[in-house]
Amino acid sequence: MLLVSFSLIALGAASAFPSSPGPISKRTIGKVTVCTDDKLGGECSTAVAQANQCLDFNNYDNQISSMQTDPGTFCWLYNQHGCTGAARGVLQDSGKCLADIDFDNVMSSMKCLDAASCFNCKVSFPGSP
Q: What CATH number should be reported for the domain holding residue 106?
């Protein structure tokens, strides 16, 4: 598994992108924005997601409350680094509040896919695994 760590910093400063490209070229599927408050508020950062590549949130571990992805993007959110532990699935949404899926201030990492190629992906709802 290819693991890329990145730090989140406030918008207006430098964007948070993976620290180095992986040895294998992965297809870019779109941008992912994560924020510390609901409705894309608080400190936010945007990164370019690579298909099926794990992104760890080191500086904002367990502090993310909302997110937004480009259209057609499905992401698995994990409560542990390295895309392990409990997971929730989310499809592109404008300002997804993670409290809606019982994952507020829980996310430590995520992995995104092109929704069109995601045959076994299941969107999570409150109380679902």
A: 2.60.20.10
